[in-house]
Task: structure prediction
Amino acid sequence: MKSNVMLEVSALKVRYGEVAAVKGIDLSVPAGSIAVLLGANGAGKSSTLNAIVGLTASTGSVTFEGQSIAGAPAEAIVKRGVSLTPEGRRVFPGLTVAENLHLGGAAHASGAELAARVEAELDRFPILRERYRQRAGLLSGGEQQMLAIARSLMSAPRLLFLDEPSLGLAPLIVDKVFDLISQLNEKGLTVLLVEQNAEQALEIADYGYVLQSGNVVLQGSSAELVGSDLVKQAYLAE
Result:
């Protein structure tokens, strides 16, 4: 793992009524790295991300760049430099691409700065420039995923959470998404990735955690996880 831990999570627990979704997990994400959370549906991956960013009630310790963000409201966490691209993209279908992007950045910039951020995302995602005045609900699944990521980047995060970014996309688009994640990381963005496509996720990740039933059952470098029997049998089956 790379040094200089950006995110440190300790004894994180999430409950939904009587159901314990996350059972006291520990994880850390070094600055400049890509970390991945692997696990089957219901393992607690999305609950972990949502708890860290303040969307789901939780207990435990969460520190970002050395300062506690546990219990902070989601808006404050985003302003601190953490952004989430949720599972299922969740763009606003009745709004245009332009309006979605502005919503992603309006709380963090205005005027020339907001316009510059929009322009940067249109440069990063040329298809969004072509679709700029179209309603987001008319975009393809891949285009909506690009818009969802661009909207997350409008807040200029230093740590980006991506929840199942390849879900439901054609293989060619999946490749583009993973290439994009690598490019963002090369430019200095730290990434925590939840992904069921373990093979491609481990190709770009530095480190990973395997969750089962709300517990971390395995962690290690991407090479260590690729070589583990558990990962091979559960996630890398031919």
